Amino acid sequence: MNSSPSQQALRVFLVEDAIPIRQRMAARFGAIDSVEIVGEAEEPGAALAGIDATGADVVVMDLRLTGGTGMELLHSLARSASPVITIVLTNHSSAWFRQACVAAGAQYFFDKTSEFDLACSTITRIAHERRARGLNYSIT
């Protein structure tokens, strides 16, 4: 991979307690052009450490995690000095959960069952927008 800013991949960190689902997420998101899966975790503490260590740009998380919740992670990320785009991808998709996650700092919220493709499209769009900004930056 080219390390110049214009060619830098969107760094995505996955936080999901179910290994098969996390593997599916890694395969689908990692196949997107200009996306790199930089880490995975199943609990909030390891996720925070991994997100910080990898310099992730995007965090895709479930609400149900081992040893904690995605809400805890959202609150921690909102207080973090490092900006990161947070995407909640969960089966707990009622209006209450959506509102609570947005209030806690989530930029995106998707139902894992019915909106997985929409989550993929959103990550694709974010990666392409980042790449376009990098290209525009290197031109000027």
Jot down its keywords.
5 helices; 140 residues; WalR-like; Rossmann fold; Sig_transdc_resp-reg_receiver; single chain; five-stranded parallel β-sheet; two-stranded antiparallel ribbon; 22% strand; phosphoprotein; alpha/beta
The value of Rg in angstroms is 15 Å
- The rounded distance between the terminal residues' Cα atoms is 23 Å
Please mark out the parts with pLDDT under 50 across 5 or more consecutive residues, or reply none.
Answer: 1-6
| Overall number of strands | 7
Residue fraction in strands: 15-25%
| Overall spatial form | globular
The share of residues in helices is: 40-55%
User: What string, H for helix and E for strand, traces the elements in order?
Assistant: EHEHEEEHEHEH
Overall tally of structural domains: 1
Top CATH class: Alpha Beta
CATH architecture: 3-Layer(aba) Sandwich
Number of helices: 5
Residue-averaged pLDDT: 89
**Helix-and-strand structural type:** alpha/beta
CATH topology call: Rossmann fold
Give the strand order of the largest sheet, numbering strands 1, 2, ... along the chain.
2-1-3-6-7
GO biological process, one term: phosphorelay signal transduction system
InterPro entries: CheY-like_superfamily, NreC/VraR/RcsB-like_REC, Sig_transdc_resp-reg_receiver, WalR-like
Modified residues (4-aspartylphosphate): 62
Protein name: Two-component system response regulator
How would you describe what is shown here?
The protein has helices at 19-30, 44-54, 70-79, 95-104, 116-139; strands at 10-15, 35-41, 58-61, 64-65, 68-69, 85-90, 108-111. With 140 residues, the chain is α/β, with parallel strands linked by helices. The strands form two sheets. It has a five-stranded parallel β-sheet, sandwiched between helices. Strands 4-5 form a two-stranded antiparallel sheet. Strand 4 (64-65) and strand 5 (68-69) form a beta hairpin. The protein is globular and about 35 Å long. 31% of the residues are buried. One of its GO terms (biological process) is phosphorelay signal transduction system. It holds the Pfam family Response_reg. Residues 11-127 form the Response regulatory domain.
